[in-house]
């Protein structure tokens, strides 16, 4: 294997001029996600993937954030590598797992993996079908012959649901924040705009955009990239996902 496994997330992004998308939100991210049971989430992913992967699989998690999910899932799958485009998120992680800072559409590794996963609608941060297809092709090239790829995606009904709590504010570790959630049906872009005030009084704004794709788009992109859908669940369940679901969990494999 030519590629290295990197520690502490010190490896720079391929594009040196690329802005860290979670530079400020990384400071409050654990607070924003304190409603999540990562232990349960990890067990769910393990349950839906374990029957389909080889024994003792090599695992690559993309868009791992602060690695809270990885810390639990890596207890079930031991050969585990985490990655994220945000160096700030990786730095805020306490994980002892090896890390690499990279764009998930340009994975700087020559190794193939038996299980590739990404979670919490990370695919929605790819803002065009061109980017989404590039990502699926990148996964294909890094997936072993019998490998499994799983991810969840937010659908349109999820965006409408979040408009009910369009503006929230709070305080975490001395940081004050205001979050505005805006869904634009015409463009299918969902924005989360954060205004964060540091303990010293400095204030910064950070905007996170997601593209809300149709249910069928994921099947189309899979077909074009050499993948196929093994299962599609309503997220966090074992029932079949559908276009009207808030979120869906896909399991894909390489075509023979």
Explain the overall architecture.
The protein is α/β, with parallel strands linked by helices and 256 residues long. It folds into 2 domains: 25-154 and 214-254, Rossmann fold; 157-210, Single Sheet (N-terminal domain of TfIIb). It is built from 7 helices and 11 strands. It has helices spanning 29-32, 38-49, 68-73, 87-91, 129-142, 156-162, 215-225, and strands at 58-61, 79-84, 98-101, 113-118, 143-154, 167-172, 175-184, 189-197, 203-211, 227-234, 247-254. It has a 7-stranded mixed β-sheet, sandwiched between helices. It has a 4-stranded antiparallel β-sheet with strand order 6-7-8-9. A hairpin with a 2-residue loop joins strand 6 and strand 7 (175-184). Helix 5 crosses helix 7. The chain starts with 28 loop residues before the first helix and ends with a strand. Mean pLDDT is 92; it is low at 1-17.
